[in-house]
Amino acid sequence: MRVTSRLRTTPFSILDRSRTRQGRERSQALRDTVRFAQQAEALGYHRFWVSEHHSVPGVAGSAPTVLASAVAAATVRIRVGTGGVMLPNHRPLVVAEQFGVLESLFPGRIDMGLGRSVGFTDGIRRALGTEKDAAQDFGAQLDELLGWFTGEQGAYPQVHAHPAEGLRLPVFVLATGAGAELAARAGLSLVIGDLRGRDEMLRAIDRYRAGFRPSAWSSAPYVVVSGNVAVAGTAEEARRLLLPEAWAMAYSRTHGAFPPLAPASEIEAREMTEKERGFYERGLRGQLYGTEDEVAAALDELIERSDADEVLITTSTYDREALLDSYRRLARVMGLSTASTEAEPCAAGSDLDDAYAALAEHAHVLGIRGEHHLR
């Protein structure tokens, strides 16, 4: 396999949503995320991000800054962040304080990724104290949040976000359409899906670059393209890795609940309604999967078309070993050292329990009490 200069010089990162699996405890998904971060670091990935979802059966990641702290404590070099904190669900002051704590504990390693989504249902939104149209206030919330870091917010005189005030960390907006334009206006980096190279995505990237205003956070546009990528020994094996997520998406669209991941074999044997089958096939259409050579060619073309500065991989599947193998193969596609692609379960030769012990030393800062919360 020939690794192109484009692939070799483009950073690749990971977003893990702590997907739950049939027959496994939700807590296991969070522990899997921490271990996966250690493996990603050993493989040479650039960043490792976690997500925010509330009252979703298929996702355990509901407190991204807490989980990011666990990941950062369990790793050494890899950048750690959120993909993202949904700003309409939070007071900007609290978000600033949380990231100020993270950056203070793990200086130079923290990314602040922000989104504008609200809860999936009216009940979740009420529980979060927000409304369906709260996303419309994202621009104002973003301005306030950044103001807490610079000390320039004027809405609350004599109030300061300690220890965030005066700190600078990379800020990313997860967005398409209007969100991309907000990122440009604020001078922030953009994370945009998907990896299908569609004209709509490319037009949004063009608008972002054209409207970008240099800021204290970024002097030039920075585009991260995100989506699912699966790599295996054959194209069919790689495609099977995508089946659990495609079915979960189809089920959520037809039943109103996003379920835990099921084994690919169970999904292949499932009798689907016509409507379910339509959403399922749509979820698979256009995804990037294949052998190392096939995926290398597809990613090289994507990066060329979008002029992406970075690629964020968001793949989830039921089979954790097959998932790790996919990321190992992708590391080879990127031209990372083959010596690092064995990906020992724990970084720097440490045991996962040591990582939790290290986190426990910092836990009081986040208001966590008792080691049982960390296991």
TrEMBL record:
It comes from the Bacteria. GO terms for molecular function: oxidoreductase activity, acting on paired donors, with incorporation or reduction of molecular oxygen. GO terms for cellular component: cytosol. Pfam families: Bac_luciferase (PF00296). Coiled coil: none annotated. To bacterial alkanal monooxygenase alpha and beta chains. PANTHER family: LUCIFERASE-LIKE MONOOXYGENASE (PTHR30137:SF6). This is Luciferase family oxidoreductase, group 1. It comes from Streptomyces violaceusniger (strain Tu 4113). The lineage of its organism: Bacteria, Bacillati, Actinomycetota, Actinomycetes, Kitasatosporales.
